[in-house]
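Re: beginner question about structure tokens

> Can someone show what the tokenized structure looks like for a real chain? I only ever see the sequence side.

Sure, here's an example I had lying around. Input first:
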Amino acid sequence: MADETDELVDHLDDEVEGEAAETVKPPRQGLLRFALMSGSSIAGRDAAFWVTDFLNAAYYRRAEEHRELDDLRAAWCILTTYWHRNSGRRLRLTDLTAFHQAYGAERFDTSATGRGELSREQLLTGASALLGDWFPDALADDSRRGWGIAFETLDDRAAYDPASRMELAKLGPLSPEHAPPEDQTWHTYPPVELPSAESAIEVLTAPEVWPDLATEIGRFTPLRTGGLAGQTFEIDVAAGTDSGTPIFTRGYVTVTTLVTPDDPDALAAWFSVLNNGLAAFGDGEPAALPAGATAIVGFDLTTHQGHFMGSGHNRLGLYEHEGKTWVRAAGTWDPMPWHIKQSYRVAGQQAQHAFWGQGEVARQSMLHQLALRAAA
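And the corresponding structure tokens:
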């Protein structure tokens, strides 16, 4: 593993040195962490091809008009439940045998990736063979589902410790932005209407249900016990979803600040600092909290080293304005190092904007999925 790691970093170093002379070469440690951040933490690199093909068969390979987010979430849940029930070790190439037996070898034939698809019925039938006849009912039962896992019993759910996935994440240090504010990117996304503040807060403050808000381009999985304050999330991201063969990567964020009406001064200050920063350093960015609006909740999601957008943090703010409840995302980011900028330019920017509500494509926007879940 050490030899492979050094070879990978040396290769990336060579690519960086080939760029323009004024390009700053990123730290060797940062390059390595970014390079190894592909896919999900529950899958080893030798499992990447069949895990990707399974997700493609369940969702991405379908024509857009036939895609159902519930099927993608079911596919993720099958993978994550299988991972959990197999001692929480990373999925490997050897696990393909079990999926072959449950779903048929043709589904993972990489010479025919344009053909294989899995219907909802096939997903559940295969999951019953793979995991047990209990799985379809557990998948549909909110009380037996959490952290993206379906549990056979309520006791199994109560006994689950998300720290088992945290161990696989090998979390790097927090990496908030540190460049002068005028050199940072300040951006706010369009607000998304919510059915009510109470229903949205109920969802947001139960991190174990966040995987149920997964979109076709992003999925948050909590890695700690407890509520929202101090929670760390693994973010699985898919770029290039329109192609039917997306590219997967991941990053980590932690809730470093949470402000609520319990501390009205802190709540007002949080939105004031954000609005002032957007006004001073944003490129014509609108205020995160409109004039006359009433702040409800705000929190920061600060990146960890190796995040696919570099150093910074995103913010989510809830507010009431003109008789309606809204949620809005706003981000602040350092200038991106070369290796992150190229990846973001090619595959990440459109996905990032869509995920936080820009473009109002519900199947891509977590905030629109939050609104739908809160209305249910």
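Each token stands for a local structural state, so reading them left to right follows the chain. The two ends are 47 Å apart (CA to CA).
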